[in-house]
Request: fold
Amino acid sequence: MKIVDVDVLDVRFPTSRTLDGSDAVHLDPDYSAAYVVLRTDHRPDGHGLTFTIGRGTEVVVEAVRSLAPFLRGRDAEELFGDMRAFWRQIVGDSQLRWIGPEKGAIHLAGAAIVNAVWDLYAKTRDKPLWKLLADMTPRQLVDAVDFTYITDAINPDEALDLLTAAAPGRQEREAQLRAEGYPAYVTSVGWMGYDDAKVERLCHEARAEGWTSFKMKVGGDPAEDARRAALIRGAIGDEHRLMMDANQRWDVDEAIARVHALAGFDPFWIEEPTSPDDVLGHATIARAVAPIAVATGEHAHNRVMFKQLMQADAIGFCQIDSCRLGGVNEVIAVLLMAAKFGIPVCPHAGGVGLCELVQHLSMFDYLAVSGAIDGRVIEYVDHLHEHFVDPVVIEAGRYRAPLRPGFSAEMTPETLAAHLFPDGAVWAPQATRA
Amino acid sequence: MKIVDVDVLDVRFPTSRTLDGSDAVHLDPDYSAAYVVLRTDHRPDGHGLTFTIGRGTEVVVEAVRSLAPFLRGRDAEELFGDMRAFWRQIVGDSQLRWIGPEKGAIHLAGAAIVNAVWDLYAKTRDKPLWKLLADMTPRQLVDAVDFTYITDAINPDEALDLLTAAAPGRQEREAQLRAEGYPAYVTSVGWMGYDDAKVERLCHEARAEGWTSFKMKVGGDPAEDARRAALIRGAIGDEHRLMMDANQRWDVDEAIARVHALAGFDPFWIEEPTSPDDVLGHATIARAVAPIAVATGEHAHNRVMFKQLMQADAIGFCQIDSCRLGGVNEVIAVLLMAAKFGIPVCPHAGGVGLCELVQHLSMFDYLAVSGAIDGRVIEYVDHLHEHFVDPVVIEAGRYRAPLRPGFSAEMTPETLAAHLFPDGAVWAPQATRA
Reply:
């Protein structure tokens, strides 16, 4: 099977019209994706995406075009046979790396491409991605990972030992996973731009559906944060978990003061309290607000950042993102470090397709890496799933294991036609008004 | 004066044909720039650039286009009147920030734009940029800086005190600077891809020209590094400084071992020993290889990274880059922190136009921020200056103070025509061969 072409589309959803996804920093996101299709000379095609929030998607699309030559004309089985070498080509090109390295638009673009190759790999093996990964041997998994810059935290031999030690019980865990699903928490009740009545109604509906963990946005006016926290805590009850997410809104000292001020509402974690680049700042905050845990990761751009967050005792929860990290290969590197450091992985999701993607990664982690599920939750946001060919299935606050082959990233043809930016139907009236 | 349009050009120089600029990671750079012209309704225009190394320039060009709407139609004096607000618009757009934030292609693009605005500002005041900055009051300088995320290291009041304390003696320092220039070191003798005869000849020539500090590339095969270090140390003599630059080639433990192995050649500093994102790794290396100093910064993407490098005692020299940081505003933030932490700033230069740009920043630092010049050196690389309207002037290993108004970023019309990618004359034969 040969990859004959790489298509990339700029797909945007006008979520700013209803303020879905709004927070203290991202006031008006239009959830979007740079969407990649690997065209092959045999069915199936490979699908991957990286999540963006409107303007700027065009830059990531351009970056995908710049990486496409590494795939065009390549033999698919050759790629699958040495995923580490393929990954290094994508992130390590001697000229392209300058505009990262391993960060920003070029790394987001790489993630979309890498994930599309893993999707194709899983489809050719007729397995959902989580199952493909869980069935790989420890040696095969280690060989898919680039350990460059993380050997002071974990080296290939340690990783091999860790994966080998996690093997016993895998079949029982898989049976349990298929029967019971994977626990989740819900974010869509507490967007910053929603009015009180809507927030309260959504909390009650979510409770009725069986949710037990809820996330709200903070980082606005302090009195307003406290008022909304009281509202949501009241609506969900004291027995349930309330996560708080500041979306990078604070400086270090400010974060400490603001978390202390919200401590009475018993937050389960404080997420992104400051700059995603500030490892030392996160560590300072974590020491100051304990026992409230610090969570971060959706903007941690590569394994080197996660390594340091773990080395510095800066995070209680590791929030990998499926496509800010450089796709599956780099996610595995972070899962390995998290297992070694004993830090639960609770992926960032929501956006466009992130829930579809990360469920595979958490399920793989449970089956083959950490071997644990206690205290882990995948984020869930109730938007835009209808656009996917294989949308997530949630039951009573848990992700059901996806069963279709691949990485669940494929969007429907109708969605692509309508949401292409700027020419799709949902954008045409806007374009005329502009 | 109104900015009527923003032009952006993809300009590339085929340096890979002679291996100028080659190192252990960047094997074959084609030195390039995303080059920005702010067209005004009155002369002058503003010029800015960000440096790239070939492939990927097109992504940064696209990112400049995405930022251009923030400038088109704007009144120039209004921008000059609140540079902090303007900077925040460029780096803080609620949607565009997702593809950074403050890193990668979008931050490089922002730097080119921000620097073009500063160029225009200096030209309208008929001053070279270093003089414009040095003549600003401490309050005006502080008001140009965004202190978000760095207030735990320096806050606006401390910055004001620091700048006020640096004011005495400024006129004497300026007179001295105009008379004697600013000290430099030379990198162009030691590129990885040059053969021994060329390296030796260049070292002897540089000594004859008055150079006293020389940089070589390391990070290749260990025996080969040692052989080349012996060659260069022999050619420059024991009395001169030898810097070593590993260009991110090593993991942390490897870096320590490799620096120890090269210690006999008396390196003045070891530059970029590992991932530019690895603050803790740099700190570990710095402790292990002392008294050899660690230098880094050309890939430190924003003020938050420099803050941590200083907080963690990870660097002995702070190597700001004029256009990987988000332009002049963010450079000032880093200069302020470096002055507070007592770390000498020795800018990264070379590339395309970096020497032209950073000379202004070091001279401003000497006159108005650190007030110090001892132990500071600006990097100098002897390539591509002939393409600039106001090229650097070097005499006896020192930068002469530039005297023409602006930020020295403007390229000649002939250069732009010949080096436009992919249609310029220097690329046409390549394009035909491809």
Summary: The two ends of chain A are 45 Å apart (CA to CA). Chain A has a mean pLDDT of 96. The first strand of chain A starts at residue 3 and ends at 12.
